[in-house]
Write a structure and sequence with these properties.
Structural class: alpha/beta
Largest sheet: 8 strands, mixed
Strand content: 25-35%
CATH architecture: 3-Layer(aba) Sandwich
CATH class: Alpha Beta
Distance between the termini: 29 Å
Oligomer: single chain
Shape: globular
Number of domains: 1
Order of helices and strands: EHEHEHEEHEHEE
CATH superfamily: Vaccinia Virus protein VP39
Number of helices: 5
Number of strands: 8
Strand order of the largest sheet: 1-4-3-2-5-6-8-7
CATH topology: Rossmann fold
Radius of gyration: 15 Å
């Protein structure tokens, strides 16, 4: 396990907290566990507590890279996955900034539970997604193709507040074939997992 506390990229906000597993976390975990990841190389973007990294290992992943902009999340995720630390490498970084030293790095599966709550400004980096909750999602979509292996899979958690149909269209414009594979209705929104394949 590599626990890197060096920061890569610009910090978007100053508020730090570690996002605890919630309904969105469990839904994305369910999607990950449906994948056959034996021998695969996976990326858990925005790892938070590390729940998705563990799910990737449980699904058979050989190598898992976990990234979060919050250094406290990296410490927590590392502790939560202590018993499988030989399978997971942790980086503190802003989206794909951690990989700039090795731009040829490719993953078979990338999963992301982004900050998606619509907000006038980003105060809480684990929740606030800016206008329409899409600020981080849109940046991610513009970059993710570069880091997926041929035939690679993306699992992206979004909310009905983000206009899931528009997100599917944006992914397909990038060359993905996308579909909503899971959904969960909550009191104030609906959550979706979009599965996209190159």
């Amino acid at each position: 396990m590599l626990l890197s506390l060096k920061s890569f990229g610009k910090k978007r906000v100053s508020k730090m907290q570690v996002y605890p597993p919630a309904e969105d976390s469990w839904l994305l975990k369910e999607a990950i566990l449906k994948e056959k990841l034996n021998g695969k190389k996976c990326l858990d973007m925005g790892t938070g507590s590390g729940i998705q990294s563990r799910a990737m290992v449980e699904a058979g992943a050989e190598i898992v890279t976990a990234v979060d902009i919050n250094p406290d999340a990296i410490i927590k995720a590392s502790k939560n996955n202590e018993n499988i630390k030989d399978k997971i490498t942790f980086f503190n970084g802003d989206l794909f900034s951690f990989i700039h030293d090795n731009p040829s790095e490719k993953f078979d599966l990338i999963a992301f539970n982004p900050p998606y709550v619509p907000s006038d400004k980003i105060k809480w980096k684990d929740l606030d997604g800016g206008k329409d909750g899409r600020e981080i999602i849109d940046i991610f979509i513009n970059e993710v193709c570069e880091y997926l292996a041929p035939g690679g899979i993306l699992l992206l958690l979004v909310s009905s507040h983000n206009n899931e149909k528009e997100i599917v269209k944006a992914l397909d414009k990038k060359g993905f074939v996308s579909q909503i594979i899971l959904e969960k209705k909550l009191f104030f929104e609906k959550l979706y997992v979009i599965r996209s394949e190159l």
